[in-house]
From TrEMBL:
This is Glycosyltransferase involved in cell wall bisynthesis. Gene3D superfamilies: Glycogen Phosphorylase B. It comes from Algoriphagus boritolerans DSM 17298 = JCM 18970. The keyword Transmembrane helix does not apply. Residues 9-179 form the DUF1972 domain. One of its GO terms (molecular function) is glycosyltransferase activity. Residues 193-348 form the Glycosyl transferase family domain. Signal peptide: none annotated. It comes from the Bacteria. Keywords: Transferase. Pfam families: DUF1972 (PF09314), Glycos_transf_1 (PF00534).
Length: 376
């Protein structure tokens, strides 16, 4: 399949690639890339070569370049972006879009080549428990360099924009992630786990400390709820912390591991009694967007980011970062099923225009055009 004719060539890098939908950044690249192609933009995505056994040059009109990396837990992503940046700078792309603030230093390369750039910096990576010591220092330093070397800084929430202004005296454009709301999702797929509609609470996310699944599990098990707590997600490597969670012995806990079938995941969200959201350090969180889009009653950790997404309590309740607060909110939810129904009814209305993928795409396209053609 030949590349579509276009006047604008955009290179995208920093995630796993296309169409490898695994996390928030991969979803952003898929949803944004496909819509840009439909608008006549030439989109090139740099794929992590080791993740792709088949390597077609074009997929759904998106040009895929398969770049290598030094395969190690701490170097894979950074070296992949480094090689991708070198390739893009020697090519005829008009603008380079990078995701992840860890790639901040590589903006120097594009600056030396005179290539216009934008970077989506994501959350407070340097605060995440998995990056201790040197890793934390690196992410703080890299995030600071991102504000110096890239032409346009992009954050996904108003609160994250405030953080970057306060810490680095750098302003950014706020462009949220989009959502794909769905109504009337069949309950049949949840029978796979012997679950019943509204018979369980749900957690969705990677099993890493900053998502606080341990806290939610501990608090829930102290509650008097007879429902199950379903934990969907895992980590793609052997991890002592995650294994300790999965070794819990309680009939109310169900670990599904990764659920890659979109219909099964949609059913798990749509038919839960309430969705627990423990993510702590991000901005606009894709799992929260899914919960709103699938009409969940949401119980979220009380953070500025979660307050922003749930419009300060309009679309959910908040718990504090301690097991007793989780216990209390689980029991409160059980005692007020009518309120849970209200949250479910209003959830999709929380997906304002800023979370619409078409609107998100228009905002990114405006950024790319201004970087290439001026009027910044």
């Amino acid at each position: 399949m030949a590349a579509p004719k276009s006047t604008l060539k955009v290179a995208i890098m920093g995630a796993k690639g296309y169409p490898y939908v695994y996390g928030g950044y991969d979803t952003l690249i898929k949803e944004l890339g496909e819509r840009l192609v439909a608008k006549g933009v030439h989109v090139r995505v740099y794929n992590h070569r080791a993740l792709f056994t088949d390597r077609p040059r074009f997929v759904n009109g998106i040009e895929c370049i398969y770049t290598p990396a030094i395969e190690s837990k701490s170097l894979t992503q950074l070296t992949h972006t480094f090689f991708s940046m070198i390739h893009a700078c020697f090519s005829d792309v008009d603008v380079i879009f990078v995701v992840n603030s860890g790639n901040g230093p590589f903006g120097l390369i594009s600056k030396l080549f005179g290539k216009p750039t934008a970077i989506n910096v994501d959350g407070l990576e340097w605060l995440r428990p998995k990056w201790k010591g040197l890793g934390s220092k690196y992410f703080f330093w890299a995030s600071k360099l991102a504000t110096k070397f890239y032409d346009q800084l992009i954050n996904d929430s108003d609160e994250m924009r405030r953080v970057y202004l306060e810490l680095f005296q750098a302003d950014s454009k706020v462009i949220a992630y989009g959502a794909n709301p769905r109504e009337s999702v069949e309950s049949a797929p949840i029978k796979k786990w012997n679950l019943e509609s509204r018979g369980y609470f749900l957690i969705v996310g990677r099993l890493v400390p900053d998502n606080n699944a341990d806290l939610i599990i501990e608090g829930f098990l102290k509650s008097n709820s007879d429902r199950k707590l379903v934990i969907t997600g895992d980590v793609p490597f052997e991890d002592e912390w995650a294994n300790r969670l999965k070794n819990h012995q309680d009939k109310r806990l169900l670990f599904t591991g990764y659920v890659r079938d979109p219909d099964e995941l949609a059913a798990l969200y749509s038919h839960c009694f309430a969705y627990f959201h423990g993510h702590e350090f991000g901005g606009t969180n894709p799992a929260m967007l899914k919960a709103l889009g699938f009409g969940c009653a949401i119980l979220a950790l009380d953070t500025p980011f979660n307050q922003e997404m749930l419009q300060n309590g309009k679309h959910g309740w908040y718990f504090e970062k301690n097991p007793e607060s989780v216990k209390a909110i689980a029991e409160k939810a059980e005692s007020e099923p009518e309120k849970m129904d209200e949250f479910r009814m209003s959830a999709r209305s929380g997906l304002t225009q800023r979370y619409n993928w078409d609107y998100v795409t228009e905002q990114y396209l405006d950024v790319f055009k201004s970087l290439v053609f001026g009027s910044r």
